[in-house]
Design a protein that fits this description.
Blueprint: H1 4-25, H2 33-48, H3 50-53, H4 58-90
Helix pairs in contact: 1-2, 1-4
């Protein structure tokens, strides 16, 4: 990606996903509202800002989106496991 602002936003999302996963692994409960807003804003830019994307390496953008989506899938799995553990502990 040649749009450094866009790449910085993507890198921040990946970092926040990793921090959230680490916090969950440590047993913390996480408010995902800020991460959700970040991801939504990023995907809105990618979907809507054609002028900004004219100079972006599409292959790199595709790889970046794959990394974000894979991280979100892992995070979803972590949340599901944590929820299952909490339910089992209450039973």
């Amino acid at each position: 990606m040649t749009d450094y602002g866009l790449q910085a936003r993507a890198d921040e999302i990946v970092s926040n996903i990793q921090r959230s996963r680490a916090a969950l692994a440590g047993g913390a409960l996480i408010d995902f509202t800020p991460l959700e807003a970040q991801v939504t804003d990023f995907f809105d830019v990618v979907a809507d800002d054609e002028v900004r994307l004219e100079n972006v390496d599409k292959d790199q953008l595709h790889r970046t989106l794959q990394v974000i989506l894979a991280g979100l899938e892992l995070l979803e799995g972590d949340v599901t496991r944590q929820q299952e553990e909490l339910v089992a502990a209450e039973a």
